[in-house]
């Protein structure tokens, strides 16, 4: 459309100065130039709002730093760089020997605790039997004391009184023995409860040791591929975020994001049609829709810290990101991560101006065959 208007403008200029013989004095020339600039400028402004186009589109994926949960020496690396992997595939293995020792020790400790519980349960049975025997003794001695008391009342002789004292002392001794037996039973039950509680502790320690042993085998967190290996067999790895063993590219979710000046997104809304062209696929035109306009920008982020943000550093170029999804049946996974390209969005406002972007994006897809910087 701009080319068409430029041709019309040129034709008008030719008619005015050649056909109508208008003398090219400063005023007619200035008026002609001004009208041309205003006409084309207005068209360009309306065009960029009605069908914004950006050359800053990129294919992006999530990146996961591979950091081990346990430390140790790498013994094998089955995963090859840049080779497709499925979730759960082995990336590399850490020497499991010390962690196997920890599992063996925890299992032995759990067995010891359970064996102690069996012994304590047997001890409780013995204590219960002692209590029953002591209870029977108390009952018998109580009866003997009552008989001696009855005899003493009937014949208060010295021999009867002696028998009464002996029976009472025996009864008191039986009561003390019963109290002691009950105390032993309570002590045994308390020891059993403590031992039963220690079973949970021992099982938790065993579970922790087994978990650490499992973590010696580092697996793929999702479908994707590993790149930038920083380890070899024999490398000692540690569980530190800044000491990643490699970088994992998650291919389960691929996004296309394009950057636009904020003023060009006035009429952009989700589900509006888009067309894309990528440098890695020259001559191919992709179609899709606007997923969302990301209402956030890194320039507006304040990082929590002990230092106040500097007012001199506050500012933004006013660029927002638009997330795009391709039409069904078109696989975005075939596009390489980091592939750059151009995207045109066709809004519901000023649809007649969309033809300019349609022509431009189609020119872009063919120009990508040429190694032209900045295209």
Describe this structure in words.
The chain is α+β, with helices and mostly antiparallel strands. The chain has four domains: 1-50, no CATH class; 51-63 and 252-370, Beta Barrel (Elongation Factor Tu (Ef-tu), domain 3); 68-95 and 216-237, OB fold (Dihydrolipoamide Acetyltransferase, E2P), CATH 2.40.50.100; 98-214, Helix Hairpins. The chain has helices at 2-19, 26-50, 97-154, 158-214, 354-367, and strands spanning 53-66, 72-76, 90-94, 217-219, 224-227, 236-237, 246-261, 273-278, 286-294, 319-326, 340-345. It has a six-stranded antiparallel barrel. It has a four-stranded antiparallel beta sheet with strand order 4-3-2-6, with no helix packed on it.
Strand order of the largest sheet: 1-7-10-9-8-11
Mean pLDDT across every amino acid position? 79
CATH superfamily placement of the largest domain: Efflux pump adaptor protein, beta barrel domain
Provide the CATH top-level class of the largest domain.
Answer: Mainly Beta
What's the β-strand tally?
11
CATH architectural arrangement of the largest domain: Beta Barrel
Under CATH, the topology of the largest domain can be stated as Elongation Factor Tu (Ef-tu), domain 3
Tell me roughly what share of residues is in helical segments: 40-55%
Q: How many individual helices?
A: 5
């Amino acid at each position: 459309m701009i080319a068409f208007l430029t041709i019309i403008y040129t034709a008008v200029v030719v008619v005015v100065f050649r056909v109508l013989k208008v003398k090219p004095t400063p005023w007619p020339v200035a008026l002609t130039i001004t009208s041309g600039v205003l006409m084309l400028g207005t068209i360009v402004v309306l065009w960029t709002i009605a069908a914004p186009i950006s050359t800053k589109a990129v294919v992006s994926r999530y990146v996961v730093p591979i950091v081990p949960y346990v430390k140790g020496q790498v013994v094998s690396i089955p995963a090859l760089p840049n080779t497709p992997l499925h979730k759960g595939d082995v990336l590399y293995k850490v020497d499991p020997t010390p962690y196997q020792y920890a599992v063996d020790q925890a299992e032995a400790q759990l067995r010891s605790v359970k064996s102690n519980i069996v012994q304590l349960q047997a001890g409780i049975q013995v204590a219960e039997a002692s209590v029953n025997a002591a209870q029977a003794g108390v009952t018998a001695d109580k009866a003997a004391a009552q008989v001696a008391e009855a005899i003493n009342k009937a014949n208060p002789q010295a021999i009867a009184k002696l028998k009464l004292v002996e029976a009472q002392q025996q009864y008191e001794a039986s009561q003390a023995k019963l109290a002691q037996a009950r105390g032993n039973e309570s002590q045994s039950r308390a020891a059993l409860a403590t031992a039963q509680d220690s079973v949970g502790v021992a099982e938790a320690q065993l579970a922790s040791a087994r978990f650490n042993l499992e973590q010696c085998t580092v697996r793929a967190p999702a479908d994707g591929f590993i790149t930038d290996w920083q380890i070899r067999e024999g490398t000692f790895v540690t569980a530190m975020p800044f000491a990643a063993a490699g970088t994992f590219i998650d291919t389960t979710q691929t996004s296309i994001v394009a950057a636009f000046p904020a003023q060009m997104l006035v009429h952009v809304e989700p589900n509006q049609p888009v067309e894309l062209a990528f440098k890695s696929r020259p001559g191919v035109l992709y179609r899709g829709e606007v997923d969302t306009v990301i209402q956030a920008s890194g320039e507006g982020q304040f990082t929590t810290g002990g230092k106040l943000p500097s007012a001199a550093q506050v500012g933004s170029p006013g660029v927002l990101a638009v997330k795009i999804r391709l039409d069904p049946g078109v696989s975005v996974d075939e596009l390489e991560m980091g592939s750059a390209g151009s995207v045109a969005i066709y809004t519901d406002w000023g649809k007649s101006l969309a033809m300019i972007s349609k022509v431009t994006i189609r020119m872009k897809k063919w120009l990508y065959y040429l190694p032209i910087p900045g295209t």
